[in-house]
Here is the input.
Amino acid sequence: MKKTSMNLVMLLTVIMTYGNISNLSAGSLNNADSLVAFFPFNGNANDESGNGHDGSINGNAELTSDRFMTENRAFTFPDQSSNISLSNTSDINLEGGFTLNAWVKYKNTYSVIVGKHVCGFVNGFVMGIDYDGQMQLWLANSVWSTVRTNYTFVEDQCYMITASYDAGTSVAKIYVNGENNGSGNVTYNNYSSYPISIGEAYQNNCQPANMSGAVDEVKIYSRPLSEAEILTEYNSSQVGLVAFYPFNGNTNDESGNGNHGTITGARVTPAADRYGEEG
Here is the structure.
């Protein structure tokens, strides 16, 4: 959580994270207000948002290289038993709207990237790859409402895939590399009581839908991000994260690069963050 008298440290965080202050915009600084889970997959499935939604690694899900070819920084899901599941808490029900964001190593196979759905009947939502190789967002009512891409994907290439749903306007959108590639009016009212899962449907005993490529840097927001915010996310993530300091009771760098901070000076003490959480 945030500390008092740390303006210099916060400025350092911004510069180290993006490498160049010109890469930032108001949108990239404001996204944190609705970030409910962030999985950089730095050798584990820990949630680095500070909200405690650590993932459980199930089946044969295993670490693999990320898009920068750094080992053990992404997950692949080789079979139907493989997924990462989250505890089913109220702040990730996402019934009022959401944004799902992930870097994906593309495979032209029917698969789940992120979903809150159990197989066998229409329920919840899924962001994944359809049978024809296009990215799609499924949203449940009595049937499925969908939005999908129209894009030429290349096997084994990495893409940032984003899907958003706005409950106020009933509009869903799907993006490839920060650009809107599909949108439409949808109906989403058949919610799922099952946990969010990554890489495969939760406890899937129907048709396999495992993501056999790779998934990395999964971010889940509790609101639909704007097109400008999503483009900023893509542009900033292109340069590679150097350091990330959520200050969750320490000054550890949660980017996975080991650039941990050292606390010096008597005035640098733990304090409540902007949500009133201590430490």
